[in-house]
Every structure is written in structure tokens, then in C-alpha cells.
Input
Amino acid sequence: MNATLPEFKIKTEVFEGPLDLLLSLVEKRKLFISDISLASVTDEYINHINKLPEYSMGDRTQFILIASTLLLIKAKSLLPNLPLTEDENGSIEDLELRLRELEVMRRQSNEIKKIFGNNVLFFQENSPEREVFFNPGEDVKLNNISEAIARVLNSLPKAEVPLPKLKVQKVVSLEEMMDSLTVRIKSAIKMSFSDFSGKGKVEKVNVIVSFLALLELVKQGTVDARQEGLFDEIEMESYSIGTPSYT
Amino acid sequence: MTNLSNQIEALLFWKSEPVSLKELSKMLSVEVDKVSEGLIELEKSLENRGTVLIKKEDTVYLATNSESSELIKKITKEEESAELGKASLETLSIVLYKSPIRRSDIDYIRGVNSSFILRNLLIRGLVDKKTDPKDSRTFVYSPSFELLAHLGITEVGKLPDFEKVQAEIETFKNQKEQNNQTIA
Amino acid sequence: MTNLSNQIEALLFWKSEPVSLKELSKMLSVEVDKVSEGLIELEKSLENRGTVLIKKEDTVYLATNSESSELIKKITKEEESAELGKASLETLSIVLYKSPIRRSDIDYIRGVNSSFILRNLLIRGLVDKKTDPKDSRTFVYSPSFELLAHLGITEVGKLPDFEKVQAEIETFKNQKEQNNQTIA
Output
């Protein structure tokens, strides 16, 4: 077996939108759709977004929306006490439901594929007992024909002008965030989470990614995070001034 | 009903036009004698039903039963006076401006399948259908002479904005070729 | 067979296109309820015959039965209709199990814009589009007779796992509503 094969496959596989990608990742691991399985594919999902080819930049926003929900799910799984707003809880449950529904439809589409065209029922090829004779309706008039062709031309789908490359900020990868976290922790022993992430200035997803990076660091024992009260600032502190042991 | 008379019914229904015994025997891969037997059986089973088996010279076909003939005459009358309606007028206008045209191209321009509408336009004598000179397996549609006369024009070129409309449709069709490569 | 179911069969054969119960009731000058009864009777009398009745919402259409499918396919030498891609099949399934459905709902389930795919399916005649009765500014999509015929089934209820899938969809719907309530 060639070890680089899966990598190659990931690059060539075209995913039809964010849900397709996510469902494929869950199914590839033979997992059921749940918060646990979604949390476990979060990193891989974000990796895929970073590998998205240039031409699909316009779709990236859609991918990022799903990514931010995934990050929430992951944050929650790392920190069960994490308070989430009702909106956030709602979007998590919503994502699960959407995936389940898509999963059902995908399963059925395999069944449809099996029977399509196998046992066709045929309709009449001709209209029986019809004599063709010239019989225009009252409305077959030149002005109606003019109006009709105008309607036809009007409803032609517009030419597919390639969308101007949307300037969507590239989602920050977990690794980049961890790098930046570590550097900043080194320079300031104590910092608040909102300082670090520049909350309000950058996309929400960046906040979450940095938050998660923080959680991962906590897990790895690189930093110590403290939250005094429920909605207080999260304070982080570095355990050691040396190089953290992440890869 | 045996399988054979069943299949004969299906074939005649599907064709809905006169079919010779020889053709039937060929289609069913059975002897003509067998076909005749099957037809006798079919005839019996159609007693007291909506359709009947009609034999004419050496052909057979299905037709509506005689009890329905009054009803159908009445409905035909009503249909004759009916207006075409928006969708049919749009289809007809495409045939007028872009003939001869294949059904697939009409469908592509309208964004929906047009088979029923075209069939209806044919029955009303508004369009003609003939084999596509470029591909004998398909048909092309064009306006009938009666239609042009009815509209008071001697040729399609006299239609309002003829060239402009043609050009617009042509541009759209050219996109088709490009798009087809991207739509799976 | 009563006179009514007889006449319905004759009309459907003669029209050779989908006919709604309302149209039948008008053509036959009888109540829609009576038409429904007549159709049930017709369906029964077609059992074990050459033709079947395909039902879709409030419309019916006669077709050949599945036993003749192989035979006619051989005769038409119908080129295998171009393979349906993964995205098309997925969209068709959603339309089949959830019709009538709006495009926005299809997009929501698939997580991508489905307008290209839907247009393609409309052109191929596999999907029907009509104005949403609940909102005249939007459209709803449903399976076409052509699609049911290609699947060899006479109504959506005969789709693979129909009951099971309906139950699953129902569960999703309830959970979604609960979910929305807690958010609101």
C-alpha cells in the first residue's frame, strides 16, 4: 500500500458544499452523527477548507459558517461546562438534524439509483384517434406571439458570469492559531482571552478557533486558563517559558 | 389473461396506432398464428371495458369503445374552442422564431420539458414535425403554413424583431455548450 | 366494470396525457368523489392486464405494465438514458420523498444551491415545477409521471422504504420545531 494515497484522494475528491464534506468525513470514519462524532472531525474539516481550490473561494463563507458551528461543538466537548447561548445550541442541533436528513436522502438515493430505468412503464407514443386539422385558439395572434417570445427571452437564465473572487478571509487554521498563542503567551505572562483574539475586530470564527486552540493548549498542559466567574474574562498563563511541546 | 395477450395489449396501447400482425409477431418474437390467438383472447378480455380492439385489413389497434364516442365528440368540440394559454404560446413562439428546432432545444430554452405541449400544437395543426436532416433519430419542429397565413405573414423573417430575437437565442444556446461541460 | 370506470379508461386512453380528477369530473359531468370511486374500480380491473394507472397527487395517467417493460425497451432500443450523477440522484430523492418541496428547502438539506440541477431535471422531464399554493411568488417541485414511470412505480407510496423514510422525516420535523421554539 502506498501511504500517500489517501492524501492524493482528498485532493482530487470534489465535495458538493459544506454538508457533503462533513457527512463524508463522518461516514468515512463509520460514525453515527452525534456531537461526539462531529467534534472528532472538526480539525479534518477545517483542514479541508484550507485545501479548497481557489475557484471555490466564493463558497468558502458557507464552509466557514459550518466550521464555526463545528468549533462550538468541539469547544463544548472539551469543556462541558462551557456556557453556550440558545442560538449557539440551536445551530448545533440544527446542524445535526440537517446532516441526519441528508444522510437519509443519500441512503435513499442509492435505492433510487438501483431501480431507475430498470423497469420502465411506458406512456402512449401517439395520441389515438386524432385528426390533425388547423385549429388555432382565439389567442394565436401576432401580438400575443410577440409578447410570448419576450417572456421567453426574459426568463432565460442569465449567463454564468464567474463571480468576482469574493474576498473572504481565509479561515485561520488551528495550527496557526496555536503558534500565535504560544508566541503571545511568551511575551505576556498574563493576558485576557479577549485581548488575544481581538474580539469584535475579527471574524467570529477566529475567536472560536483561538479559543479552541487555547483549550487544546490547556489539555496539553502548556497554558493554564482561569475564568473567575461565568462571563468573566478567561485569563491564561503560561506554565513554562520554554518551547511548548506541541507538533 | 395470458402473458401474451397482456403483452399485445401493452404494445398496442404504447403504439396507439395501427400495427400489422407481422410487426406484432416480430416484436413479440412469436409466430403470427400465436399472435392471432392472443388477439382473440385480448378481444374477449376487452369486452365491457373502455377500449376495444379494432381490426382493419391486416392491422389491429386499440380505440375507445363506442359508448364513449358521444362524450369524446363533445370534449373534442370544447377543446377546439379552447385558447392555447401562456405556456403553449411561448412554445409556439420559439418554434416560430427558431425553426426548424429540435425538442431538446425548445426544452433547454424554456427550462422545462415540452413534450405534451408540442403534441398538442401538432394536433391543432399549428406546427409540423419532420425527421431532422442532420440526425435521423430525432425530429425537428417548424410552424405550419396555415399558422403563418393565420398570422398574416408570408415567412418567419417577417416576424417582429426577427433578427434580434434569433441573435439572443443563439447567444444563449452557445452558452449551453460551455455550461454542459460544467453541469454533471 | 361500471359505465363510469369504463368511460374514465376511454378518456384517459384518448387524452394520452396526465388528467386531473377535476378535469375528469368536468368532462364526465360527475362529482369528484364519484370520479375517485371510478378510478379505484378502474385500477382494480387493470390488475393483471397490459396497462396500469399511475397516480400523482390529484392526477392520473395510463401506462404499460411492468411485465412489458423489457419487451418495449428492446423495441425502442432506447439509448440508456444518460446516467444520473450523485447530485441529481440526491436531489431527485429529496423531491420524491418530500414533495411538494420548495427550492430553498432542497438547498437547505443539501447545503448547496440546487438551481442548476433542478433546471436540468426539469428539462429532462423528471421533475415538475408549479406555483406554491401557499405563496404565489415561489415554486414547489414534485416528481413527474416520467420519473415515477422510470422507477417502475405507480405512486410515490411505492418508493423503496417509503413509510420508514416518512417516519424519519417526521421526527426531524418535530425536533426542528422544538429546537426553533427553544431559540425563539
